[in-house]
Known about the structure:
This protein is of the alpha/beta class. It contains 15 helices and 10 strands. The chain has helices spanning 19-24, 26-39, 43-49, 52-55, 58-80, 84-87, 97-104, 110-126, 143-154, 176-188, 209-219, 243-255, 260-269, 283-291, 303-312; strands spanning 3-7, 90-93, 133-139, 159-166, 169-175, 193-196, 231-232, 239-240, 274-278, 296-300. A 4-stranded parallel sheet has the order 2-1-9-10. Strands 4-5-3-6 form a 4-stranded antiparallel sheet. Helix 8 packs antiparallel against helix 11 (209-219) and helix 11 (209-219) packs antiparallel against helix 12. The longest helix has 23 residues, at 58-80. It is globular, with a radius of gyration of 18 Å. The mean pLDDT is 96. Its EC number is 2.3.1.39. This is Malonyl CoA-acyl carrier protein transacylase. Belongs to the fabD family. It catalyses: holo-[ACP] + malonyl-CoA = malonyl-[ACP] + CoA.
Amino acid sequence: MTRALVFPGQGSQAVGMGKELADAFPVAREVFQEVDDALSQKLSALMFEGPENELTLTENAQPALMAVSLAVTRVLEKEGGFTLTDKCDLVAGHSLGEYSALAAAGTFAIADAARLLKIRGQAMQAAVPVGVGAMAALLGLDYADAVAVAEEAAQGDVCTAANDNANGQVVVSGHKAAVERAIEIAKEKGAKRAVLLPVSAPFHCPLMQPAADRMAEALGTVAMNAPAKPVVANVTAEKTDNPETIRKLLVEQVCGTVRWRESVLYMKEQGITELVEIGAGKVLTGMVRRIDRDLSGTAVNGPADIEAFLGAL
């Protein structure tokens, strides 16, 4: 069985995440301490105890989700002798999860990934004043139809497909009025559901250009190694292991579409049969089943998951 490791994005955070890992494994505590030190912030306390409204702030949720993913990765390595180079063929992550994937594959140091994601969260939040932008999930329309809805809804504003998550599960992003128009047009075109998402900014659309500029600057200061295994990039849905290409694609990713459905299908084309979700929640595992039932999906986020996964290797 050929395996890809995939790393979750925003929306998978929950108060209490990582606490079981920290209680059970010293190496997990070391990861959380390293992230706390890099950010000069007790992010681990926020992850373990909340409050939820602070954890959900994008500047906290992004590095927190990476921290949990890297804690799971380090536990697999230390407790189970799981090596990325031997036990998987590709890595990928959903939006911020791409940074987690790259940190797991050795492109970034954990401390650098934490600082980059803090900056990314702050820059994405600051790019658009609160209330100006919005995002909406369009369920039951395929990607081409959702793109057509976004184009029709724009009417001089910004409205684009932000995430192509799975079959019939597309997110649009842009100016609030345009996104609200997209909801109504989608319903007229037969969407099963079309709903505004509880997000603080319109991610992955051209309104994020100030954040992309900030990330170009931040990424330019960080040392990047070739990943131990190629990463399937969000914006191309193809693999690369070239650090300079990865740097450029991470900048493009801020405004670009997260092509997750295509990325999963590309991994299947590359011979992948099993996707293992590393970190908080089970969102990507659920998407795998929607995208292609021939692929198996497993979520590994707590001590019991780790034991079961290592036992099955």
